[in-house]
Inverse folding.
């Protein structure tokens, strides 16, 4: 029987994503190379990993609160979505809102990856939707 939670991982010059504590929701992603993000700019930071996950899952790349609180560095497209059929290297787009340039070293924890179930829907076009207490402008 297939394990719907099994994620295959290829690691190239990086670290295995791990949960920092037993109660953590996300797996820490680490940088695989040095990158400097100038104040007010953004950079794509490679992690050196690729994954293969079952259809019906997505991986969300989210900021690390410590980087945001201490340095003003966060994930630009938070949450970034990794689709189940993507096989390229996972990169994290970080933006530096801080006043100083931010230096990322290989192995530094830069983001977290959270897995979520995906629901596929079928759209049905209608002429009018049902009304609720919330309408336009509410």
């Amino acid at each position: 029987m297939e394990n719907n939670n099994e994620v295959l991982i290829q690691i190239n010059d990086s670290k295995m994503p791990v949960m920092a504590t037993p109660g953590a929701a996300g797996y820490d992603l680490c940088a695989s190379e040095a990158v400097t993000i100038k104040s007010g700019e953004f950079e794509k930071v490679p992690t050196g990993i690729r994954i293969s996950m079952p259809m019906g899952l997505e991986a969300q790349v989210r900021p690390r609160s410590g980087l945001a609180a201490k340095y003003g560095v966060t994930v630009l497209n938070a949450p970034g979505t990794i689709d189940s059929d993507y096989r390229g290297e996972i990169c994290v787009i970080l933006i530096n809102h801080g006043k100083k340039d931010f230096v990322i070293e290989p192995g530094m924890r830069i983001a977290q990856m959270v897995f979520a179930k995906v629901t596929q829907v079928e759209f049905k076009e209608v002429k009018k939707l049902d009304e609720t207490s919330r309408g336009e402008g509410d």
About this structure: Residues 3 and 56 are 12 Å apart (CA to CA).
